Amino acid sequence: MVEQQLRARGIASEAVLAAMARLPREPFVPAELQASAYSDEALPIPAGQSISQPYMVGRMTELLDPRPGKRILEVGTGSGYQAAVLATIGCRVTSIERKTALAEAASVRIAALGLGGLVRIEVGDGSLGRPGEPPFDGIVVTAAAPRVPPALPDQLADGGRLVAPIGRRDHQELILLVRGPQGWARYDCGPCVFVPLVGEGGFREEMPRRWLGRVL
Ligand code: SAH
Questions:
Q1: Are 96 and 140 in contact (CB under 8 A)?
Q2: Atom number, ligand 1, closest to the C-alpha of residue 79
Q3: Which residue among 52, 79, 95, 107 is the active-site one?
C-alpha cells in the first residue's frame, strides 16, 4: 500500500509514509471486508459512511504538515483511521463525529491500539469546529462541504493549515487553506469524492427537522 499507492503517487513525507506503514488498517475495516483492508479504494463502514482511500488519507495528512505535538482538529471521525494516523505521527487530535455509534466504535479501536492518550473523540456537529478551545495547528475535514465551513478558519493558529473537500455533493476539490499574517492563502489540491458534511456549516438541508427548528 505505502509503496504502490502512496509513494509512487507522490506522497513524499517520510513521517506520513512511516505512520501509514506502521498502523494496521484491519481494525478500522468491517469484518466482511478484511481482505480489502489495504486496497486502493474507499470502503463502506456502518451508518452509511466510509473509510477513505489510503491515498486520500496520506495526501490530506501530508497537506496538514503534521509534526509531533501539533494540535489537530478532525471533523468526521468515521472509522477513526485518519485520527489514528495523525496520532501515530505524534499529533494530539480532537476528532468530532455526529454519529454516536461511530464515535464510540472509533474510540474503542484507538484505545486498543494504545493511541487513546493522543486522541479525544467527541460527538457533535463538527461543522462548527470546536469553539472555545485554543486555536489548532491543523484542521482536517473528512466530509464534503459546499464551502469552507465559516467557523473553521478562525480556529486556526498562525501558520495553521486547514484541509477540506469543498464542492458539490457528488464531486469536490481538495482545498488547503494556510493562515498567514495577512490572511488566508487558498490552494486547490485536486479532485476528490467524500460523503457529505451534515450540519450548520455543511449541507444544511440534510439536517434533522429539530436542528432546522433551532437555526431558523
Ligand atoms: N476520517 C474518517 C472518514 C470519515 S467519513 C476515517 O478515517 O474513517 C465522514 C464522517 O463525517 C462520517 O462518519 C460522518 O458521520 C461524519 N460527519 C458528517 N457530518 C458531520 C458533522 N457535521 N460533524 C461531525 N461529523 C460529521
A1: no
A2: 8
A3: 52
Q: What residue spans define the domains of the chain?
A: 2-215
Average pLDDT, the chain: 95
3-state secondary structure of 127: helix
Question: How many C-beta atoms surround the C-beta of residue 188 within 10 A?
Answer: 10
Q: How many CB atoms lie within 10 A of CB 162?
A: 27
C-alpha cell belonging to residue 12: 513524499
From the candidate CATH numbers 3.60.21.10, 3.30.1660.10, 3.40.50.150, 3.40.50.1860, the one assigned to the domain spanning 2-215? 3.40.50.150
* Ligand 1 environment, Cβ below 6 A: 49-52, 75-76, 78-79, 81-82, 96-99, 102, 125-127, 142-143, 195, 197-199, 202
Q: For residue 165, what is its C-alpha cell?
A: 473537500
Spatial distance between the Cα atoms of 72 and 69, rounded to a whole number of angstroms: 9
* Ligand 1 center to 127 CA (angstroms): 10
Q: List, for residues 107-141, the tens digit of each pLDDT value.
A: 999 999 999 999 999 999 999 999 989 999 999 99
**Whether 13 is catalytic:** no
How many whole angstroms from 182 Cα to the centroid of ligand 1? 31
183 bridge partner residues = 180
Question: pLDDT for 10-58, tens place per residue?
Answer: 999 999 999 999 999 999 999 999 999 999 999 999 999 999 999 999 9
